Amino acid sequence: MKLYLTDLDGTLLDHKAQIGRMTEALMNRLIDDDIKISYATARSVHSAEPKVSCINFRLPVITHNGAFIIDPVTKERIVTHFFSEESKSFIKSFFYEHKESVLVYSVIDNYERVSYLKNRLNKGTERYLKDRAGDRRMHRAKSYDELFEGDIYYITLIEPVMKPDELDRYFYKTNGFSRNYQPDTYDTDEYWYEIYREDVSKANAALKLKELVGADEL
């Protein structure tokens, strides 16, 4: 059995972050014919779902660049990669000293939360929050300590003050971290620096998903 994976932004989604009717029809026909298809994305399942709701994905999906593998129907987290307490402490201390505008992704009481500090918002994080108005995951922390509550798995900096190579000294294949640095797919003037565990990647998650569904080929 073969497992087919597609990315979303810049692949399945067009330049307007939409799925064309022909693509929708083809994907659903393949799934109905029992072709094993899923997706891998940097998005959360909450952000991805409205974009792909026209396609009847049934297999687990890869989100947050491989930090989670999630059942798209029940939203159960099948595979998770949270930071260790040591890594969490390192990040907390680092960004206390380097006052970047950070978005902290965590799970608290089984609910996902994206925390931020109002007094550290920049133009990029303000736009991010505006685009997600009404998203219950967004949480304005009342203190720096509260910003880092829960099981943390992802950190996002939009247009960081520090240069990427400076951040890389601490977060790129060192100290147990890795990162993704690239322009926003739909706004090339805006760069994102995303931090996660060193063992997290779409490639690693794809191999795990292949094992979970019992596929022979990927």
UniProtKB/TrEMBL annotation:
One of its GO terms (molecular function) is magnesium ion binding. SUPFAM superfamilies: HAD-like (SSF56784). The keyword Cytoplasm does not apply. Keywords: Hydrolase. GO terms for cellular component: cytosol. InterPro entries: HAD-like_sf, HAD-SF_hydro_IIB, HAD_sf. This is HAD hydrolase, IIB family.
